[in-house]
Specification:
Layout (H helix, E strand, L loop, with lengths): L1 H32 L4 H9 L5 H10 L6 H14 L1 E4 L4 E4 L6 E2 L4 E2 H6 L2 H28 L4 H15 L2 H15 L16 H34 L3 H8 L4 H13 L1 H15 L3 H7 L4 H11 L2 H29 L7
Antiparallel strand pairs: 1-2, 3-4
Helix pairs in contact: 1-4, 1-15, 2-3, 6-7, 6-9, 6-12, 7-9, 8-9, 8-13, 9-11, 10-11, 12-15, 13-14, 14-15
Length: about 325
């Protein structure tokens, strides 16, 4: 088991290196291949209102005229060891992990981005707990009561949840529960967990439920399909023939085998959302990573966009690593070899 985990960790680290190369190529190599100049690239560091002299000065200070391999070396070194950025009137030290320096905000990207992570983490943890519990439970009950009114009603609701976009359900939920009934917090409400846990949960309950409704629908349909397939297997009939309790047959033999695709999708969904739940955070005006990315794009702030891309890739690789380990625990048919 230890060897299996070490191999997976080594593979994840290699994947992060590949992701950093791909990210650098997308932001720095592809524009050049498309005919973009170094001044055009530097303009994305200083915003839309900078003059030509300022843009050329930034291009020289950042070394955009150097060979690409040299630029990537500085880029990778900054992530692991930090870097110094000359912004004209002084030099700003960007400690590791340094994802760049925003000349528009005049602050390093990582501290500003790190302040947004607790918001996105709170949103994803609460919503994922709700959608996993509700989706899997609904899917199991629908499979065990196939063809009943509950099954049809649950799958109809699930179909609606999959079809409705978050920016629609979120705005409707805000209009009804926040601004009309006053039951939940208004948009833009956020409180740190360490300051007031109850206020933290109150402010996030509506985003949690709205986001969970979207994903729980998919999980219910997937769990139902998996359970219907597994419950007809020979080993399940054998377990029943041995006289095992029905609850044991369902949980230990049925659900455990059917949950493997759920683990895969759950890891991918959580990893993607940790990189920024853009639509949810924008709909509810939550100051998370997704809202940070939208604001950076609107300001044409390339270092901040680059930082969000790398952080999102890290969470996705980390989620895949956790999924690989959970495979062995969730499904006895999977071996570490």
């Amino acid at each position: 088991m230890i060897t299996f985990i070490v191999r997976r960790v080594a593979g994840a680290l290699l994947m992060l290196v590949v992701v950093s190369i791909a990210t650098f190529a997308i932001f720095f190599l592809v524009p050049r291949l498309a005919g973009s100049s170094t001044d055009a690239l530097a303009a994305r560091y200083v915003g839309k209102s900078a003059d030509a002299q300022t843009i050329r000065a930034v291009a020289d200070r950042l070394g955009f005229n150097d060979p690409l391999i040299t630029q990537y070396g500085r880029f990778a070194k900054a992530i692991v060891a930090g870097a110094d950025y000359d912004y004209g009137t002084g030099v700003e030290h960007c400690p590791a992990p340094c994802f760049g320096y925003s000349f528009i905000s005049q602050v390093p990207v990582w501290p500003d981005l790190a302040d947004r992570i607790p918001v996105t983490l709170s949103l994803v943890v609460g919503a994922s707990s709700l959608w996993l519990l509700a989706g899997v439970a609904t899917g199991v009950l629908s499979a065990l009561r196939r063809g009943t009114f509950f099954d049809r009603a649950a799958m109809t609701v699930a179909l609606g949840g999959v079809s409705l976009p978050i920016f629609f359900t979120g705005l409707v939920a805000l209009a009804v529960f926040s601004y009309s009934l006053g039951i939940t917090a208004e948009g833009g409400s956020w409180s740190d967990f360490t300051t007031n846990p109850f206020l933290w949960a109150y402010n996030l309950i509506l985003p949690w439920v709205t986001l969970a409704f979207l994903y729980a629908a998919s999980y219910a349909r997937l769990t139902r399909a998996g359970m219907l397939e597994v419950m007809g297997e020979d080993y399940v009939r054998t377990a029943r023939a041995k006289g095992l309790p029905e609850r044991t047959v369902i949980v230990r033999h049925g659900l455990r085998a059917a949950i493997t695709p759920i683990v895969t999708i759950f890891g991918m969904d959580v990893g993607l959302l940790l990189g920024g739940a853009v639509l949810t955070e924008s709909t509810f005006s939550l100051p998370g990573i997704g809202k940070f990315a939208v604001d950076a794009i609107a300001r044409n702030d390339l270092p901040q966009v680059l930082g969000v891309t790398l952080v999102g890739a890290f969470f996705l690789v980390l989620a895949n690593l956790v999924v690989d380990v959970l495979y062995v625990i969730a499904d006895p048919r999977v071996t570490v070899s």
